[in-house]
Amino acid sequence: MQPKSIQERSPRAYRSELRLRQAEQTRSRVLAIAGDLFAADGYAGTSLAKIAAAAGVSAQTVHGQGSKAALMIAALEYAAVGVAGEENLFNLDIGRTLLSIDDFEESLDFMAEQLTGAHERTARLALALIGGAASDPTLERYLNDLTAGVNKQNQRGLAVYRDRGWLRSDVPFDELVETANVVCSVDTYLRITYRDGWSVAAYRSWLRRMLTETIFLPPQAN
Protein backbone atom coordinates (compact mmCIF):
# COMPACT_ATOMS: atom_id res chain seq x y z
CA MET A 1 0.00 0.00 0.00
CA GLN A 2 1.35 3.42 -0.96
CA PRO A 3 1.94 6.05 1.71
CA LYS A 4 -0.90 8.52 2.05
CA SER A 5 1.35 11.41 0.99
CA ILE A 6 2.05 9.72 -2.40
CA GLN A 7 -1.61 8.89 -2.90
CA GLU A 8 -2.51 12.54 -2.31
CA ARG A 9 0.20 13.96 -4.57
CA SER A 10 -0.37 11.77 -7.62
CA PRO A 11 -3.87 13.01 -8.59
CA ARG A 12 -2.76 16.60 -8.17
CA ALA A 13 0.33 15.99 -10.30
CA TYR A 14 -1.82 14.38 -13.00
CA ARG A 15 -4.26 17.29 -12.99
CA SER A 16 -1.36 19.73 -13.18
CA GLU A 17 0.13 17.93 -16.19
CA LEU A 18 -3.29 17.82 -17.82
CA ARG A 19 -3.76 21.55 -17.33
CA LEU A 20 -0.33 22.21 -18.82
CA ARG A 21 -1.14 20.09 -21.88
CA GLN A 22 -4.49 21.81 -22.30
CA ALA A 23 -2.87 25.24 -21.97
CA GLU A 24 -0.27 24.33 -24.60
CA GLN A 25 -2.95 23.03 -26.94
CA THR A 26 -4.93 26.24 -26.49
CA ARG A 27 -1.85 28.36 -27.15
CA SER A 28 -1.02 26.37 -30.27
CA ARG A 29 -4.56 26.79 -31.56
CA VAL A 30 -4.58 30.52 -30.83
CA LEU A 31 -1.22 31.00 -32.57
CA ALA A 32 -2.33 29.01 -35.62
CA ILE A 33 -5.55 31.01 -35.91
CA ALA A 34 -3.73 34.28 -35.29
CA GLY A 35 -1.27 33.41 -38.04
CA ASP A 36 -4.09 32.69 -40.49
CA LEU A 37 -5.77 36.01 -39.70
CA PHE A 38 -2.60 38.10 -39.80
CA ALA A 39 -1.74 36.49 -43.14
CA ALA A 40 -5.21 37.08 -44.58
CA ASP A 41 -6.10 40.49 -43.11
CA GLY A 42 -2.75 42.02 -42.25
CA TYR A 43 -1.60 43.29 -38.88
CA ALA A 44 -3.85 46.34 -38.81
CA GLY A 45 -6.88 44.34 -39.91
CA THR A 46 -6.55 41.74 -37.16
CA SER A 47 -7.75 42.32 -33.60
CA LEU A 48 -7.45 40.18 -30.49
CA ALA A 49 -11.24 39.95 -30.42
CA LYS A 50 -11.26 38.59 -33.97
CA ILE A 51 -8.62 36.01 -33.03
CA ALA A 52 -10.65 34.93 -29.99
CA ALA A 53 -13.80 34.51 -32.04
CA ALA A 54 -12.06 32.50 -34.75
CA ALA A 55 -10.26 30.29 -32.20
CA GLY A 56 -13.43 29.68 -30.20
CA VAL A 57 -11.95 30.97 -26.95
CA SER A 58 -12.60 33.96 -24.73
CA ALA A 59 -10.98 37.34 -25.27
CA GLN A 60 -9.38 36.88 -21.86
CA THR A 61 -7.72 33.68 -23.04
CA VAL A 62 -6.22 35.46 -26.05
CA HIS A 63 -5.06 38.39 -23.91
CA GLY A 64 -3.38 35.86 -21.67
CA GLN A 65 -1.16 34.80 -24.59
CA GLY A 66 0.37 38.27 -24.83
CA SER A 67 -0.04 41.52 -26.69
CA LYS A 68 -1.07 41.71 -30.34
CA ALA A 69 2.56 42.26 -31.35
CA ALA A 70 3.66 39.28 -29.25
CA LEU A 71 1.06 37.10 -30.96
CA MET A 72 2.25 38.28 -34.37
CA ILE A 73 5.83 37.36 -33.50
CA ALA A 74 4.95 34.00 -31.97
CA ALA A 75 2.62 33.11 -34.86
CA LEU A 76 5.38 33.81 -37.38
CA GLU A 77 7.94 31.69 -35.52
CA TYR A 78 5.42 28.92 -34.90
CA ALA A 79 4.57 28.80 -38.61
CA ALA A 80 8.24 28.79 -39.60
CA VAL A 81 9.68 26.11 -37.31
CA GLY A 82 6.85 24.85 -35.10
CA VAL A 83 8.00 26.63 -31.92
CA ALA A 84 8.35 30.21 -30.75
CA GLY A 85 11.39 31.81 -29.14
CA GLU A 86 14.17 29.50 -30.38
CA GLU A 87 17.07 31.48 -31.83
CA ASN A 88 19.33 28.61 -32.91
CA LEU A 89 17.93 26.33 -35.60
CA PHE A 90 20.44 23.64 -34.65
CA ASN A 91 18.61 23.17 -31.35
CA LEU A 92 15.56 21.93 -33.28
CA ASP A 93 14.95 18.65 -35.08
CA ILE A 94 15.23 20.30 -38.50
CA GLY A 95 18.66 21.71 -37.64
CA ARG A 96 19.90 18.46 -36.14
CA THR A 97 18.75 16.60 -39.24
CA LEU A 98 20.59 19.06 -41.46
CA LEU A 99 23.79 18.60 -39.46
CA SER A 100 23.47 14.82 -39.66
CA ILE A 101 23.46 14.75 -43.47
CA ASP A 102 27.02 14.20 -44.65
CA ASP A 103 26.28 13.89 -48.37
CA PHE A 104 26.72 17.15 -50.30
CA GLU A 105 23.89 16.69 -52.81
CA GLU A 106 21.46 15.36 -50.21
CA SER A 107 22.26 18.28 -47.93
CA LEU A 108 21.53 20.79 -50.67
CA ASP A 109 18.25 19.06 -51.48
CA PHE A 110 17.19 19.14 -47.85
CA MET A 111 18.22 22.77 -47.45
CA ALA A 112 16.30 23.93 -50.52
CA GLU A 113 13.23 21.90 -49.53
CA GLN A 114 13.13 23.20 -45.97
CA LEU A 115 13.74 26.83 -46.90
CA THR A 116 11.06 26.71 -49.55
CA GLY A 117 8.59 25.12 -47.16
CA ALA A 118 9.27 27.72 -44.48
CA HIS A 119 8.75 30.54 -46.99
CA GLU A 120 5.52 28.99 -48.21
CA ARG A 121 4.19 28.94 -44.64
CA THR A 122 5.37 32.40 -43.63
CA ALA A 123 5.40 34.60 -46.74
CA ARG A 124 2.09 36.33 -46.07
CA LEU A 125 2.92 36.58 -42.38
CA ALA A 126 6.18 38.26 -43.33
CA LEU A 127 4.22 40.84 -45.32
CA ALA A 128 1.98 41.42 -42.29
CA LEU A 129 5.06 41.80 -40.09
CA ILE A 130 6.64 44.34 -42.42
CA GLY A 131 3.38 46.27 -42.61
CA GLY A 132 2.93 46.20 -38.85
CA ALA A 133 6.51 47.28 -38.20
CA ALA A 134 5.77 50.59 -39.91
CA SER A 135 3.46 51.58 -37.04
CA ASP A 136 4.30 49.29 -34.12
CA PRO A 137 7.68 49.90 -32.40
CA THR A 138 7.70 46.39 -30.93
CA LEU A 139 7.42 44.83 -34.37
CA GLU A 140 9.99 47.23 -35.78
CA ARG A 141 12.50 46.14 -33.13
CA TYR A 142 11.65 42.50 -33.73
CA LEU A 143 12.10 42.85 -37.49
CA ASN A 144 15.55 44.33 -36.94
CA ASP A 145 16.42 41.58 -34.46
CA LEU A 146 15.07 38.94 -36.84
CA THR A 147 17.28 40.21 -39.64
CA ALA A 148 20.32 40.07 -37.36
CA GLY A 149 19.28 36.62 -36.12
CA VAL A 150 19.01 35.22 -39.64
CA ASN A 151 22.49 36.56 -40.36
CA LYS A 152 23.86 34.77 -37.29
CA GLN A 153 22.10 31.55 -38.22
CA ASN A 154 23.54 31.67 -41.72
CA GLN A 155 26.97 32.28 -40.23
CA ARG A 156 26.61 29.22 -37.99
CA GLY A 157 25.38 27.06 -40.83
CA LEU A 158 28.00 28.09 -43.35
CA ALA A 159 30.74 27.67 -40.74
CA VAL A 160 29.76 23.99 -40.52
CA TYR A 161 29.98 23.60 -44.28
CA ARG A 162 33.26 25.51 -44.37
CA ASP A 163 34.71 22.97 -41.96
CA ARG A 164 33.53 20.21 -44.31
CA GLY A 165 35.27 21.87 -47.24
CA TRP A 166 31.99 22.49 -49.07
CA LEU A 167 32.24 26.28 -49.50
CA ARG A 168 33.86 28.30 -52.23
CA SER A 169 37.35 29.38 -51.23
CA ASP A 170 37.69 32.19 -53.76
CA VAL A 171 35.13 34.41 -51.97
CA PRO A 172 35.52 35.79 -48.43
CA PHE A 173 33.38 34.04 -45.83
CA ASP A 174 31.50 37.23 -44.89
CA GLU A 175 30.52 37.70 -48.53
CA LEU A 176 29.21 34.14 -48.71
CA VAL A 177 27.10 34.82 -45.61
CA GLU A 178 25.70 38.00 -47.15
CA THR A 179 24.96 36.15 -50.37
CA ALA A 180 23.06 33.52 -48.38
CA ASN A 181 21.13 36.27 -46.60
CA VAL A 182 19.89 37.59 -49.94
CA VAL A 183 19.40 34.35 -51.88
CA CYS A 184 17.60 32.57 -49.04
CA SER A 185 15.51 35.48 -47.79
CA VAL A 186 11.74 35.57 -47.74
CA ASP A 187 11.98 38.87 -49.63
CA THR A 188 13.57 37.04 -52.56
CA TYR A 189 10.94 34.31 -52.33
CA LEU A 190 8.16 36.94 -52.41
CA ARG A 191 9.67 38.69 -55.40
CA ILE A 192 10.07 35.51 -57.44
CA THR A 193 6.78 33.80 -56.58
CA TYR A 194 4.35 36.61 -55.73
CA ARG A 195 5.57 39.38 -58.02
CA ASP A 196 7.16 37.49 -60.90
CA GLY A 197 4.66 34.63 -60.85
CA TRP A 198 7.05 31.69 -60.63
CA SER A 199 5.74 28.42 -59.24
CA VAL A 200 7.01 27.22 -55.88
CA ALA A 201 8.69 24.28 -57.62
CA ALA A 202 10.50 26.64 -59.98
CA TYR A 203 11.65 28.74 -57.04
CA ARG A 204 12.93 25.65 -55.23
CA SER A 205 14.98 24.61 -58.27
CA TRP A 206 16.33 28.14 -58.67
CA LEU A 207 17.25 28.32 -54.97
CA ARG A 208 19.18 25.07 -55.12
CA ARG A 209 21.03 26.18 -58.23
CA MET A 210 21.89 29.57 -56.72
CA LEU A 211 23.22 27.94 -53.57
CA THR A 212 25.39 25.65 -55.68
CA GLU A 213 26.69 28.39 -57.98
CA THR A 214 27.22 31.27 -55.55
CA ILE A 215 28.05 29.76 -52.16
CA PHE A 216 29.11 26.15 -52.39
CA LEU A 217 31.75 24.42 -54.45
CA PRO A 218 30.60 23.03 -57.78
CA PRO A 219 29.32 19.45 -57.35
CA GLN A 220 32.20 17.97 -59.36
CA ALA A 221 34.62 19.47 -56.85
CA ASN A 222 33.11 17.37 -54.07
Question: Can you characterise this structure?
Answer:
- The chain is mainly alpha-helical and 222 residues long.
- It contains 10 helices and no strands.
- The chain has a domain at 68-221: Tetracycline Repressor, domain 2, CATH 1.10.357.
- Helix 1 packs across helix 2, helix 6 (104-133) packs antiparallel against helix 7 and helix 8 (173-183) runs antiparallel to helix 10 (200-214).
- The longest helix has 38 residues, at 4-41.
- The model has no long low-confidence stretch (mean pLDDT 90).
List the helices and strands and how they pair.
Layout: H1 4-41, H2 48-55, H3 59-63, H4 68-81, H5 93-100, H6 104-133, H7 137-163, H8 173-183, H9 186-195, H10 200-214
Provide a short characterization of the protein structure.
Helix content is 75%, strand content 0%. By secondary structure, it is an all-alpha fold.
Broad shape: globular
Number of helices: 10
**What is the structural class?**
mainly alpha
Radius of gyration over all CA atoms, rounded: 21 Å
**Assembly state of the chains shown:** single chain
CATH architecture of one domain: Orthogonal Bundle
Kindly list the characteristics that best describe this protein.
single chain, Tetracycline Repressor, domain 2, 75% helix, mainly alpha, 222 residues
